[in-house]
Structure formats: C-alpha cells, structure tokens
Amino acid sequence: MRKEETEDLMVFTKALNKVYQVGDRKLAVLKNINLTIPKAKFVVLCGPSGSGKTTLLNIISGIDKPTSGKIIVGGQDLAEQDEDALSDFRCNHVGFVFQSYNLVSTLTVAENIAFPMEWTQKPEEEIENRVNELLKTVGLEDRATHFSAQLSGGEQQRVAFARALANDPELILADEPTGNLDAKNAQKILQVLQMLKAEGKTVIVSTHDQEIRRLADQVLCLEEGHLASANE
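^ that's the sequence the OP posted. Answer follows.
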C-alpha cells in the first residue's frame, strides 16, 4: 500500500505474524493478520483469553515488534523503526492504558500524569495546567498528591487514563480497562471512553465489556491468533 493510500488510516497491517520462542519450541501468537482501522474510529478488540489481543495492542503501540509482516500506524512503518524511534513514537503519538495500570509507585498521582510531558520536555507551566485539566477530566482533583498504593483499583485506572492522555495522542489503546473494576468504577471509565470518542480520537479497546462494545464503530475478533471477523 502506497503512503497516500494510508493517509486516512490510523492502523494498517498486512500478513502480520508474531512468534515467540518458548524453550525449544515456537509459539505463534498472531497469524497472518490483515486489518485496516480508519482514523477517528472507536474499535473494540474481542476474543477469548490467549487469542492474541494484548500482543496485537503491543505491536500497534510499538512496544513489541512483529516477527514478520507490515505494520503502519499513523503513517509510520513501525517494523522499520529502531528502539529510540519507537520510544519517541509511543510518547508523542500513542496513549496506552495497561490492564495492570503500570503506575510508578514512587510518584504521586500528579507526577505520574506529568511524566510523559516531562519526557517530551514541555514547559513547566504547560505541564501543570495539563495535569490539572486531566485530574478534572477523570474526577481525581482531590488525589493529586496521593501515591498509587493509597488509591483504589478504579482510581488507579483513571490515573492511568489521565497519564495516557497527557501528550494529547492521536491514538488511545486500552487493554481490558474495566476488567478488574466494580460496576461503579467501570461506569466512570466508560464515561472517559465516551468523551474520547466524542473528541474524534482513534480508540482501540480490548474488552469483554458489553457496555464498551456498544460504543464500537468497528469490532475485531481474534481466535487463536487469527482475525476471525472485522465487523463495521
């Protein structure tokens, strides 16, 4: 696919494969994945545990590299990038919300949110204003100076969303964002996702949550590493 043909696409993959070496055997996790995700779409990634959802998110984000095949995200060919370029790409263009939150335990809530902006050397005043804005967005203004150990799981997940949004990325990825939450906290995450959809962000969410699935413009289902369906 030529560059001009991918301008309206956020994600394009062709014959994408991921194989892990486990001891003396090879484990194929993704098998010949061909998909296109247009910009400003809300996409739900579904499938049973072990079907390859997290691996696909990791490759789209540049955290991991495919064993073979093509992966273009935001017009950039990630398979051709070195680790430094991938780090810059992730920090500037992708917000990733991990299932296990991955907050830095020695940093406060505000410091966790500020971290991606400090990495990109934004001015201090801009960082402070953005942190305050995001704390309001996720309803945690009163938790700014708390550490992750002092937060509930739902609060940690909201901090993780705020951190992912810090640099205003064009692509948001979330891995089972409500999987470990009670109904009340899941509803708050749903509201954040609804906001992102309304803002026209490209959002890709791995989830079993039917409430989140109702937001989807596109549903991608993985089964044993294969893309079983792609429904508009």
